[in-house]
Amino acid sequence: MSPDGSTTILESPTLAIGGRVLPARYCLAPLAGYTHLAFRRALRELGGLGLATTDLVHALQLLTGNPKSLALVETHTEDRPLSVQIFGGEARVLADAARWLEDHGYGGVDLNMGCPMAKVNGSGGGARLMCDAGGAARLVEAVVAAVSIPVTVKMRLGWDRSSLTAPALACEFESVGVAAITIHGRTRAQGFQGTVDLEGIAAVVDAVTDIPIIGNGDVRTVEDAARMRQVTGCAAVAIGRGAMLDPWLFRKLGDIAEGQPPRDPSRDEQVDFLARHFALMTEQHGERSCILFRKFAAWYGAKLGIPEDLEQRLRLFETNAEFGEIVAEIRERHGDRRQHVATALIKVPNGPVERW
Ligand SMILES: Cc1cc2nc3c(=O)[nH]c(=O)nc-3n(C[C@H](O)[C@H](O)[C@H](O)COP(=O)(O)O)c2cc1C
After folding, report:
1. φ/ψ bin of 110: left (φ > 0), alpha (ψ from -120 to 50), beta (otherwise)
2. What is the pLDDT of residues 90-132, one digit of tens each?
3. Nearest alpha carbon, ligand 1 atom 12
4. How far is the CA of 51 from the centre of ligand 1 (A)?
5. Fewer CB within 10 Å of terminal CB in the chain, N or C?
6. Does the C-beta of 345 come closer than 6 Å to ligand 1?
7. How many whole angstroms separate alpha carbon 243 and alpha carbon 31?
8. 197 alpha carbon to ligand 1 midpoint, in Å?
9. Class of domain 267-333 (CATH, top level)
């Protein structure tokens, strides 16, 4: 696909990860607190999504039945294909959690290695294992050996600019049987600052022999996705904040993969998405959804150009019936305000990031 959106690469739109075939090469990157079940289902209904991954789940808390962890792995027959992302510093616990997931019917396990060395070390002083790719690989190997579903890894480029360990680790991870690797093209030290290093992702693509590398970071448009694929040679792209900014991005990428012009959503489709997101949330959380949905008020307000008074009502409504009334009014009045969504509506940590 070229940056102008036309198709130049003849490739299958599907992608195999281990024994799993994804319907598309564009995946939803986990955004803890945003990419919950209702959002994933609403997004899938728009089309074009290859794979979604849950928010990161603490492996030990999952095993001990912590209600919050169990809520994070809640899914639905329509929420497929799905991987569950787990984290933890102990190989045995991670392997047990992976086995639990397989036993409960999940189709894939994603290991959050954030900055891999920090995680493996567990104490926050990641320096020791920075030179020990073998140690990280043994941890991953234990998980791969525990299950027959595909195990994938998500990680950053490395600790900081002077220690870009991802290519060496990717190579090790491939040799112990990891089915795919998602690379966020920033270092731990960078946090969310600066731009994504596409050359850094390309180095990871070059380091592995067969497994798909999924490029991640700063993809917000079809052009960004094309650039990620072309510059890095990655087999697939994971999109996080871009999916919040434009839930139709996957559909557009699917249109392009089929040689069709990308379709923008109509205004009605945009309001339908808001209503559907809430309806699916209600299926899972009942009346509590009225409170849970409030954090999306500002985002939908800006996204749909909803007048301030309606956005305020989205922040305060208490019943499903009230929500219905607000949506009816939005249908008549949205677009009154200029549509503008800043990435800033999704808060990112300020400093270095250990986990994501
Ligand atoms: C609010 C927020 C929550 C995130 N939660 C997770 C998470 O649970 N697991 C993970 O691997 N990455 C997480 N990330 C990182 C994203 O998956 C992704 O790597 C990063 O945002 C860069 O991609 P993007 O520019 O497409 O958003 C999170 C990022 C943000 C902003």
Report:
1. beta
2. 899 999 999 999 999 999 999 998 755 544 444 433 333 334 6
3. 356
4. 15
5. N
6. no
7. 10
8. 16
9. mainly alpha
Q: Which of 27, 115, 234, 290 is catalytic?
A: 115
Total count of residues recorded for the chain: 356
Q: Is 241 in the pocket of ligand 1 (CB under 6 A)?
A: yes
DSSP string, 197-243: -HHHHHHHHHH-SSSPEEEESS--SHHHHHHHHHHH--SEEEESHHH
Measure 112 CA to ligand 1 centroid, in angstroms. Answer: 11
Pick the CATH number of 15-257 from 2.30.42.10, 3.40.50.740, 3.20.20.70, 3.20.20.140: 3.20.20.70
300 membership: H or E segment, kind and range: helix 297-304
Token pair in block for residue 219: 């993809």
Residue-wise pLDDT tens digits, 22-73:
999 999 999 999 999 999 999 999 999 999 999 999 999 999 999 999 999 9
What is the location of CATH 3.20.20.70 in the chain? 15-257
